[in-house]
Amino acid sequence: MSSVRYARRFGRARASARLLLATAALYLWGCGGETVLGEYPPSSCDLAEPPAEFHDTPLSIATFWATDPHENAALRTLLDRVDSTRYFVQPQEMKTRIATQRHIIDSFATQQLPDVFQVNGGNDVLRWVEGRGQETTDVCALDRLRDSYDWNHNYFEAALAPLSCHEHLYGLPVGIHHLNVLFYNRKLFSALQAQAEARGLALSAPSALKDPRQLAEALELVASLGATTPEGAPIVPLALGAKSAWPLTIVAFENVLLGLGHDAYETLWLGGLEHDDGTRRSELARSLDEMVSVLRRLVVLSNFSQPVSWQDALQQVGAGEALMTITGDWGYAQLTSEARDDVVISEFPGTAGNFVYTPDSFAVPRELKKNGFPARSFLHEIVESKDALIEFARWKHSIPPRVDLSPDEVDALDDDGLRDTYRRFKSCEQSSSCKLLLAVSGLGPPPGTDPCFDEIDALLALAVTGELPEDETLEGCQTSEPLDRETASARLIELLLKIGEQRFANDCR
């Protein structure tokens, strides 16, 4: 489906859904007083208590974790806790977060929605509630559950804030990921460092690199050594997945742009150009141009031209076939237990003092003729459970979003990296010297805002590599002249500067 056709369908779907929901809201208003289930047409937002006796009730969940075996295994740790004598689970499996959002858009038009759907904290949720009263939002407020079970006290404030609007909570987090991280094989690094020293060269440890430029220089030094694996294959300095466009986007924004400094990340994604006199715009344009330049250097030092996935890239680092890769800490789940002894996670150069995060979460769509008890059960009995969150964390390599883990429960995370990340996130939330930054998926334009916005990943890939990844198009970003590497770069920077002029879901922030 082209982005243009999608944008038009988005408009029709939203209009249809708003008509249905607005009608329901008027009916409720007319009832007056305190409503009780049964006095008006039920809605999933009732989040009713389950009946005492029931069985074979559908529990439908829309998720984008189904395509990766490790992420699917993490999801299964939650689904396996569902009481099979009462519910049967119906997964609606999407390939990507964007696909899940598009599915929900279509489902609002038909009012055939899942009980819960997976979201990243931020605009995935806020897009459905901004500018509306609590009774007319497209996703349900979870305030009664939040207050009943003291979620405000038990969860990290930074985990709930991206799911909240005007003090109403619209989603529940299940895990928190750290995005500004670099993976490297320490055994391979030691061997390469010794090889460099034998030539009178100094190869700095990743933790000693001060910015993305120094990272590129270190990788160029690695490439110059001409090192090979025991089988004789050249060592890849930087492994990057090329099958999809989004892995490069994470390298670009949450890592390289943030590492270049000048507050460029926040200027771009938090509407820093909205009231600008032109000074910040010029500075951001320079930072974006340098970001593209650094990315081009990194791609030359990578295996980006090979059809490998981001999962393959992690496994190549674990096997000692590549020195480094850059992605969120979910990549750790791709490593075997043996490889985990050799692979180290380090803060991306230049991003010290920043913790870029995203809360994996679940939201409940508003649907008439449902009373919402399957969604309530899933959130309260499973997603909220400390035991479930700890088990999920082991599979997904995300930290639990609850601030109230005891020392024994932190130890039960069973991995030094997870325990360290949990403690760092907790410390960062409480410290003025550390900054928690929401990931781009929570701050950027949600799908359907603009046809070209939907194609940022593909446009970036073309600007950096000169080629489009598999299954990517640029129909929404076409201009009067053909897009090649240089015109795509200019178009990308123009588009990003446009994004910097507004703050999406600003009413909720």
CATH topology of the largest domain: D-Maltodextrin-Binding Protein, domain 2
Gyration radius, in Å? 23 Å
> What's the CATH C level of the largest domain?
Alpha Beta
Number of strands: 12
CATH architecture annotation of the largest domain: 3-Layer(aba) Sandwich
- Mean model confidence by pLDDT: 89
Strand content: 5-15%
Helical segment tally? 21
Could you name the ranges where pLDDT drops below 50 across 5 or more consecutive residues?
Answer: 1-38
Account of the 3D structure:
This protein has 509 residues and is α/β, with parallel strands linked by helices. It folds into two domains: 3-177 and 358-431, D-Maltodextrin-Binding Protein, domain 2 (3-Layer(aba) Sandwich), CATH 3.40.190; 181-355, Periplasmic binding protein-like II (D-Maltodextrin-Binding Protein, domain 2, 3-Layer(aba) Sandwich). The protein is built from 21 helices and twelve strands. The strands form three sheets. Strands 1, 2, 3, 6, 11 and 12 form a six-stranded mixed sheet that branches. Strands 8-9-7-10 form a four-stranded mixed sheet. The chain has a two-stranded antiparallel sheet with strand order 4-5. Helix 12 (279-300) packs across helix 20. The longest helix is centred in the N-terminal third of the chain and has 29 residues, at 3-31. The protein is globular and about 75 Å long.
